[in-house]
Amino acid sequence: MADYLCGSQEAFVEKMNQRAKELGMNDTTFKNCHGIDEDGHVTSAYDISLMSRELLNNHPTILNYTTIWMDTLRNGESELVNTNKLIRNYKGATGLKTGSTSVALYNLSASATRDGLSLIAVIMKAPTTAIRFSEAQKLLDYGFSNYQYKELATRGTVLKEVSVTKGVNSNVNLIFENDVGFLLKKGEDKNIEQAINVEENIMAPINEGQKVGEVVYTLNGEELGRTNIVAEKNVEKKTFFSIVTYVCQNWFTLFRIE
Fold first, then answer.
1. By residue range, what is the domain housing residue 195?
2. What is the pLDDT confidence band of residue 203, given thresholds at 50, 70 and 90?
3. Fewer CB atoms < 10 Å away: N or C end of the chain?
């Protein structure tokens, strides 16, 4: 595959290292494209978690395969069993990758999702395959027991309707521009404060997606994040022509014969 994509394995490894740096994997140096032990071929648990997150966030179709426990090939002649035992035994497990060599011993990047919270646990150099799974489960259990993902705003959700001055339409819906959510310790969501700042006098013309305010979320006085509040649709400014058009349209609608 490396030869096909980059012309040589060396060129492919160069691309691997370049991408690793882009992801912030500063403890990682790839020496080959197959993962077998080699001097200087190193990484860290943190870097594996960065790589795993990138895979899950931007290539989610991988879950179509990592969540399969058993499958067959050649009309049932060959059977495949997932090497990640958590897929069968751990609630919410979604993947992700096992690996082992004589030097690296038993390793695992384990991912799971519960109640909208997705976690990654990385185990490296476990002495046995059973230990890597049990240690990963402990980490995931700790995460799910102590943390939650709190969704505070959903992109496109209507916040409220406001009046428009000198507009063809007398009002417009205001919506959230982006999703807003945070990883929090359980119970902290009760202390989140929301401050909504919206222009008091909204005057036409207004463009769809135009910023008319913002919402800021804080926790114990510290800002968590913010997103813009934008107009859901265009609102043209009233003109003589637009007023005449509006009157005509409503006139014919009023007297339309069914």
1. 154-254
2. confident
3. C
On whether the CB atoms of residues 152 and 179 are closer than 8 A, the answer is: no
Reduce the DSSP state of residue 257 to 3 states and report it: coil
The one-letter amino acid at 256: R
* DSSP letter, residue 189: G
If we measure between CA atoms, which residue out of 68, 183, 190 comes closest to residue 118?
A: 183
pLDDT in tens, 75-85: 888 999 999 99
Q: Report the alpha-carbon distance of residue 60 to residue 54 in Å, rounded.
A: 9
What's the pTM? 0.80
Largest CA distance in the chain: 85
Verify that 98 and 187 share a domain, yes or no.
no
Tell me the two tokens of residue 67: 């969540």
| pLDDT 10s digits, 112-136 | 999 999 999 999 999 999 999 999 9
The Cα 212–Cα 210 span in angstroms is: 6
Q: What is the pLDDT of residue 138?
A: 98
Q: In which region does residue 220 sit, left (phi positive, over 0), alpha (psi from -120 to 50) or beta (all else)?
A: left
Q: What is the mean pLDDT of residues 179-191?
A: 93
What type of residue sits at position 217? Y
Of 114, 147, 180, which one is at a domain's C-terminal end?
Answer: 147
